[in-house]
Amino acid sequence: MIKNWKSYALAGGALLFLASLGWLITHRGPLAPITVVTASVEQGDLRASVSGIGTVEARLSYAIGPTQAGRLLKVMVDQGDLVQAGQVLAEIDPVDLEQRIRATESAAQRAQQSVLIATAQEKEAQSRYRLARANASRYKALVAKNFVSNEMAESRQNEAQIAEAAMEAARSGVVAARKDAEKAGAERAGLIKQRDNLKLVSTTDGLVVSRDAEPGTTVVAGQAVFHLVDPGSLWVRARVDQAQARGVAKAQSAQIVLRSSQNESLAGQVTRIEMQSDSVTEERVINVSFVHPPKRLYLGELAEVTIQQENAKDVLNVPSAAVKKQDSQTGVWQIAEGKSKFVPVQVGIQTLDGKTQLKNGLKKGDKVIVYSSAQLREGMKVREQQSSD
């Protein structure tokens, strides 16, 4: 009897153990259903927007520097100064340029005198040629009447040819003198232009944002002494996730929050979407300008940009976390008879508070899986857990 009782006890213990093991395997082990959190499809208004982080930059910036090497003699402006187009910002030491200009002025005056002298000589040569030609014609007529000899007529003809050659030489002298005068004038104009280039002049109305050289510094051609920007062209060069930037377009309104004024939101507008995206960070660069720029902006300051997109009225929506990709299809996971089922859907706008518009595939009140303790596949056993929402 005691042996039978022990046998029953062992059999009962074994059954209890197997039952416990089976329960563990099916409820907590590899055969246990995957725990999921669900949410219901809702209907309401959505306001789409995307955000990004960027820095304050200038669309129009200018580097002002010399066109020739030299030593800075004067610097008239500093960072933060507003300048006007044509304003002299700095001067470079001319060294002996003024003396060279005066020398070319003297050379130009001498060249002009040479032109006058050559012109007078040409007129004299023309007069002598006309006289010699007239004498040659007269003696030719007298030879025909036998009043003078052929030798005398030939002599007058030779004198006319000599006078003509002298006239041509004088004419060439005038051309050469004029070229010399033009050369002297061009040299003088070139030196004056070179002297004018020693003054660094602002090409536009703008704000000086950097002063990169001081008086006494030797600078070379092309080296920037100042950097200017157009204050009206300041914008935020923001980076937005490519996945969210699909609906961003020019002229959309935006809100800008500067790092230095985190409690103040400034109105902005999308001005340009750069064609070159960042393939490494998978971001698109959006330039957002200020509708009313603040009085003082600092280049390089961090700013957060929120771009407002279209609104959707009375539309179906689900938490964005519920939208998944399965075999290149967009859809959501649902529970069908205790198992996971993928339902393809067409999505619309997304909001910053984590909601996504559904255009088709589901109806209001349907439940979708928002979170799962493991990656889902079609037909997997799942067990719903109360959503924290």
UniProtKB/TrEMBL annotation:
Residues 315-383 form the YknX-like C-terminal permuted SH3-like domain. Residues 64-229 form the Multidrug resistance protein MdtA-like barrel-sandwich hybrid domain. Belongs to the membrane fusion protein (MFP) (TC 8.A.1) family. It comes from the Bacteria. It comes from Sulfurirhabdus autotrophica. Residues 234-310 form the CusB-like beta-barrel domain. It holds the Pfam family BSH_RND. One of its GO terms (cellular component) is efflux pump complex. InterPro entries: Beta-barrel_RND_2, MdtA-like_BSH, RND_pump_MFP, YknX-like_C. One of its GO terms (molecular function) is efflux transmembrane transporter activity. Gene3D superfamilies: 2.40.30.170, 2.40.420.20, 2.40.50.100, Helix hairpin bin. Signal peptide: none annotated. This is HlyD family secretion protein.
